[in-house]
## 1
Amino acid sequence: METVSIWKRKEMKGMVICRAKDYKELSRKAANIISAQVIMKPDCVLGLATGSSPVGTYEQLIEWYKKGDLDFSKVSSINLDEYKGLDPENDQSYRYFMNTNFFNHVNIDKANTSVPNGLEPDADKACKDYDAIIEKSGGVDLQLLGLGHNGHIGFNEPCDIFPCGTHCVDLTPSTIEANKRFFESEADVPRQAYTMGIGSIMKAKKIVVVVSGEDKAEILKKVVCGPITPEVPASVLQLHPDVTIVADEAALSKM
Ligand code: F6R
């Protein structure tokens, strides 16, 4: 595996960039890291993401599960985010996404999988309940992330602070624009979401970020080489002791 270590400052450990030729290879490499986690610690807690970027990773994990190489029976999972107001049965909800793209195809116990409750209208309650679930899990062993075009991770949109715990966010126009492809029209994209905070993401023992495509090249460069600022939320990952960015050549084209 070709890797490049980026040493930012003496006291920081390296951020590893793992270069893949294309999306298929990227997905295989990311799935390899997750498999190693599940094999080394069968009762691990996986932090999971939705969106296009991890779909290939889930497909690869399902393939290896079907071959008998992986066992998810003791794994539990905590997802990053959910649209506020969407029913889990709604085919645009992140719970539905997780069930159809991953959980329904492996032997994970769905009772051990968590997604924020999009149907809870009381944002304070929804967020406190989710923080309690994260706390009770004992901590995420491996957090899988995608990267938004504006540098968001989870739905932590650019702002002037790094939010700590689960919170309710107003989605930015750029995120609504990017996500409208999954809905019938832009008007159907929910305007708010519940998301794990940056603090919770940073507490994960290991973080794997999957980034694909030329349209992510500019933001990926800012995340890795730019200043650490809440205006580029993912830039905070430079401070995490164990981050692997698995990116294809197109996403790395500006580095
Ligand atoms: C999804 C999530 C988002 C996505 C990001 C990239 O749970 O938390 O941060 O990872 O919007 O989305 P894609 O992969 O569709 O480009």
## 2
Amino acid sequence: MAEFTPATLKHPPQGEIRVDNVSHSYGVGKFAKEVVKDCGFTIEAGKLTVMIGPSGCGKSTLIRLIAGFEKPSKGSISIDGKPITGPGKDRLVVFQETALFPWMSAYNNTLYGPRARGEDTPEIHREAQSLVERVGLTAFRNKYPTQLSGGMQRRVELARAMINNPKVMILDEPFRGLDAMTKALMQEYYSALHEEFHQTAFFVTTDIDEAIFMADRLIIVSNIPTRVCAVVEVDVPRPRRLVDIYENDRANQIKMSALSMLHEEAMKSFVGGSKAASDFVDAYSKRTGKT
Ligand code: ADP
Ligand code: MG
């Protein structure tokens, strides 16, 4: 096997992101809708920070703000101490929806970023080859996205992001929609990549098991408008394997407290503000003794 030279590791890790008292609204005047409220947290350099919160709470909005696609209505976001004022090649977003070009092979998709910048050099081809190998797709390098399984497409997506050597990888529910077994394998796969490269990462999910398995630091956010409910250091040793994490007392303890927080927040978004909704909450409280 050819030796893999990490494209993404620049020691010491860089890309510490500070989100400072950020609020964000869509629309203006009486149509304004606040989606993010007084949010503050740090994405530590070299760590895998996972954000978990109910669907529709504002997580992708926070990603767009960190990526610089939108400006926060209030507060500030910085990377390594410098304010973020727009998109930059130091941050790269991997979205849930596949963004692979269907007319390009796995290999050409991987090379897309450097080629778009005019860097079609022998070095970058070597890099692309070792990345394609690192994501286990050497035998599939000439296949087109439709000829690849969902898991393989996700791995091309990772290679295509990593070749650009961003300081920070931002992943917005990257494994959503994969079948359970492929998803589990992708979680182990990305976790192992992180253990190898220690690349700063911000990973957003709605899946508690995925969140705890992946995270160095877990940020639990509320129902819309999103605010930080809790920040937990997931002090579970690495390397991690999915089969071990279910038996880890610390991981289970974090899971239980995160679940109860998330359940409360998810219920708020589930029932909304109607009379039927408040009746549902009352009935639930009576039945369970919880408010
Ligand atoms: P999540 O990623 O947590 O599911 P989003 O950030 O996608 O949540 O969305 C949060 C809320 O903001 C949703 O109610 C959504 O409808 C609304 N929203 C998202 N993008 C826009 C936009 N461009 N204009 C108006 N509302 C938006
Ligand atoms: Mg989203």
